[in-house]
Amino acid sequence: QVQLVESGGGLVQAGGSLRLSCAASGSILSINVMGWYRQAAGKQRELVARITSGGSINYADSVKGRFTISRDNAKNTVYLQMNSLKPADTAVYYCNADIKTIGTSGVPYNMQNWGKGTLVTVSS
């Protein structure tokens, strides 16, 4: 089994910064894409940023220039540095990873994994 555990959420004033972390653990053969999504109250979950194992990065237009995604492949961990936070950034942030794992049959397979989420609240 594979588990994703997020940390780093909290309450911050507008203009402040937070750093989210997400560590993957378990039967991991490799991790392709790791990313962060968020879901605000009453809205659909949306992509914030994603990074491939080779370092290719995509950001949502709403966070470009303010958020930075990075990863430590040796630690199976992805980070999201969030600067110049706005009240509109308030949401539950979820980690996502495309992980190659191995089942009880011994056959490798890819699986999308989600963390349980961490709440980020930005006050005005």
Question: How would you describe this structure in keywords?
Answer:
11 strands; seven-stranded mixed beta sheet; 124 residues; four-stranded antiparallel beta sheet; mainly beta
Description of the structure:
- The radius of gyration is 15 Å and the shape is elongated.
- The model has no long low-confidence stretch (mean pLDDT 96).
- Helix content is 0%, strand content 60%.
- The strands form two sheets. Strands 2, 4, 5, 6, 9, 10 and 11 form a seven-stranded mixed β-sheet that branches. Strands 1-3-8-7 form a four-stranded antiparallel β-sheet, with no helix packed on it.
- It is built from no helices and eleven strands.
- The relative contact order is 0.32.
- It is mostly beta strands and 124 residues long.
- A hairpin with a 4-residue loop joins strand 7 (67-72) and strand 8.
Outline the fold blueprint:
Blueprint lengths: L1 E6 L2 E4 L4 E9 L3 E10 L6 E6 L5 E3 L7 E6 L4 E6 L8 E12 L5 E7 L3 E6 L1
Parallel strand pairs: 2-11
Antiparallel strand pairs: 1-3, 3-8, 4-5, 4-9, 5-6, 7-8, 9-10, 9-11
